[in-house]
Amino acid sequence: MKLTFAALSGFLLAATLAPLAHAQDEAKAPGKDAKKVREEEKEYLVAPEQPAVQKIFTKDDVKRFCGKYSGQVIAYYGDVWKVEGCKRRPLLDSKTVYSMQRSGSRVIDVDADVIAAIPEGSPLDVSVTTEQARSCAQLEAHYVSFSSVDVYFIERCKRRLFPDWTTYVKHRDTRGDKKGEILSLSLIEFERTVEGEPYPSVVDDMFAKLLTGQAGVEIIPIDEACEGIDGRYMAFYSRLYHIERCKKREILEPEFFLKKNGNLKIDDMRDQQWLSLPDGEPILPAPKGPQGAPPKGA
Fold this sequence. Notes:
single chain; four-stranded mixed β-sheet; 13 helices; 13 strands
């Protein structure tokens, strides 16, 4: 069974921002435009490990900050807290933050002074408490996800990662599980399971069989394979291509490409099309280059 790339795209990992140490090193090099370096640093902000100057806050300062943000959800770079009883209670579970946002809570970005002034309290998990959290025995033989990106199967209290959506579907079909419900875990529940060995990808095996002829798929004329798809974006299992002049150009890091280029119409390629069309030059991930944008005429 083959899923559309649209279903698969939810399974891809989100792209992360790279640190800026290289930008700082380049700033020291002769001829480096200092203004350009500062702009690069602003584009990819990272939280400082320690403030340059340690401020001392009076009781009135702390009271003022606590009064202003009491009951609010605050954020400093990637960390999120809820202020309760003049304490910053960390929100470690993304499900908790999502639940609060659906209930109307707004996440407020604050500066370092607020974080330094309000003392940190115990972690807060409003979606599932320790008493309510399911045990690994209750999660046994279920498909689960913590980040809404990676999917696991709980086997003997170990969470085994599926490397791609196709492998998950194959596993589900083998078990005769037509529904394949994926349970969302809280941080507490996730930590109650132990990391196990990931499942081997069935996609790699499929590609190998196609290329060696073991899959029983025949090669068809190029013009027949290319008919109706030239200039379009096509998916074949976990891979994304742009068809140009009857050559399939694989788009490397498709999750980054889709994020940069919005909603593109993507169709599925048949086995015969994928096997019969010659490979073109790959489309490399390039945020600001011509290859990072959809090819002209697409």
